[in-house]
Amino acid sequence: MKKLADIVVIVSIISSITSIILAIFAILFSMRVEKRLKKNYLRLKYIMDNNHERTKEVLANMDHEAEDIKTTIYKSQTELQEALKNIVDDFDISEK
Fold first, then answer.
1. Residues 66, 72 contacting (CB under 8 angstroms)
2. Cα–Cα distance measured from residue 41 to residue 35, given in angstroms and rounded to the nearest whole number
3. How far is 23 from 72, CA to CA, in rounded Å?
4. What angle (nearest 5°) sits at the alpha carbon of residue 69, between those of residues 64 and 71?
5. Residues 6 or more apart from 87 whose CB is under 8 A from it?
6. Residues near 88 by beta carbon (within 8 Å), at least 6 away in sequence
7. Cα 40 to chain center, whole Å?
8. pTM score > 0.85 for this model?
9. Confidence class for position 45, pLDDT limits 50, 70, 90
10. Rounded to an integer, what distance in angstroms lies between the CA atom of residue 28 and that of residue 34?
11. Distance CA 46, CA 2 (A)
């Protein structure tokens, strides 16, 4: 009976030590995973911020180019109207 009690105590001690070792490995593993996730998050945040800034620049450039296009079209329309008016005035087409 004493041998059985000694075996139970030894198994209990071994299982306790094994549980402590597994807990330590679990904590170390979770710390590594946390570091990796944080690194990936920071990298993704940097990429997203960079893309956001580039998108803002592209939109600002598009707005500027749109204004330039509007101005060019307006000038072209004005020049065409003046040219047509000059043609009409020079050849007096309106009366014929």
1. no
2. 10
3. 72
4. 95
5. 93
6. 94
7. 13
8. no
9. very high
10. 10
11. 66
Q: Which residue has the tokens 């749109």?
A: 66
What are 15's two structure tokens? 């299982």
Q: Please answer whether residues 87 and 93 qualify as being in contact, where contact means their C-beta atoms are separated by less than 8 angstroms.
A: yes
Q: Judge whether 94 and 88 are in contact, CB under 8 Å.
A: yes
11/29 Cα distance (integer angstroms): 26
What is the distance between the alpha carbons of residues 60 and 66, in angstroms, rounded to a whole number? 10
Residue 47 structure tokens = 């990429």
d(CA 33, CA 24): 14
The DSSP string of 9-71 is HHHHHHHHHHHHHHHHHHHHHHHHHHHHHHHHHHHHHHHHHHHHHHHHHHHHHHHHHHHHHHH
Tell me: the pLDDT tens digits for 64-84? 999 999 999 999 999 999 998
Q: Which amino acid is at 15?
A: S
